[in-house]
Amino acid sequence: MSGPPPRVLYLTGWMRSGSTLLGNVLGELPGVRHIGELHFLWRNGVLGVGTNSSCGCGQRVTECPLWAKTLAALPAGLDESTARRMLALQHALLRTRHTRNRIAEARGTRPAAPGLTELLDRSVAVYRTLTELGGERLVVDGSKCPAEAAALLGRDDLDVRVLHIVRDPRATALSYRGAKEYIDPMSPARSSGYWTAFNLASELVGTTAADRYLRIRHEDLCADPRRVVTEVMRFAGLSGPPPVDTDGRVELGVNHTVTGNPDRMRRGTTRIATDHRWRTALSGRDVAAATAPALPLLGRYGYPFLPGRAAAAVPPPNPPASRAGAPAAGAPLTDGPVQAGDTR
User: Fold this and answer.
1) Residue 252's beta-bridge partner residues?
2) Which end of the chain is more exposed for a tag (fewer CB within 10 A), N or C?
3) Distant-in-sequence, close-in-space partners of 34: CB < 8 Å, separation ≥ 6
4) DSSP assignment, residue 42?
5) What ranges does the record give for the region Disordered, renumbered to this chain (predicted)?
6) E strand or H helix that includes residue 288
7) Direct distance between the N- and C-terminal alpha carbons of the chain, in angstroms, rounded to an integer
8) Which residues of the chain have pLDDT under 50?
9) What homologous superfamily is domain 7-342 in, according to CATH?
10) Reported pTM
């Protein structure tokens, strides 16, 4: 391969934490391509068997000019049988429970599992093509699969940075409480169970990534969007001013995201603002159910144990593998579909 390896910012953490909006904000920068959740390209984009199979531009993924070029450029081409094999390999190798094994492989203390190299080669080929189609400075992948983030860190043909986004688990529980066209409802306790598992796995990835890992909080981004977006840009190796003004407004254009919150289709002026609806919209029973499974991490991330208290004024400490400072993540627009069977 000639030239530097593709630079990828891989977003991880639990769903509904604002990764779609953050990715779209970064995608407004020159030379940055936000691609949504590449992990779901094969299922939703190629096979079209998911409920969220449109590109962010509004066309079906396979009919989008950008993705049509990208898929056609894959070394071995692409057909349904190949896409189904990719799905099978993802299920066998990239669920959250596989994170420790993928970390060991990235560190070189364990040989790569059968099929892993084949699976990752496809992702690397997609990243490489996208760097030639508008992502020469950075490709932003919001897939949020900790095991995949770990596996990609082991590649020497990629420059991967891992951005771990956390949000108060009561807020994500509220988002999952009702059915939406692209996700099934989930109880507060179950949502927070996944929240804890995904965030613990993401922190494990941080122990492997060293200075290639940063954790931010959704609430901090909402409170000071310009500062946090700037922090993320610098972490990802991007110079220049952020595309957010001092009032938290950003002008969003057309994007080419695979899967994600339907708000990824939003165009025009968008204001990033704080959202504390969970404090009044959740019943006391639901708050308790969402809080209990998350107790091991609430204090670590600076979230109150009791809903009546204000959010922590001082950012929580990062784990040893994190960069100094814990700015934050997300925005009132949160992210997309999750197949519950693939998350454990």
Assistant:
1) 268
2) N
3) 23, 24, 26, 27, 140, 142, 255, 256, 257
4) I
5) 309-344
6) helix 284-291
7) 36
8) 309-344
9) P-loop containing nucleotide triphosphate hydrolases (3.40.50.300)
10) 0.87
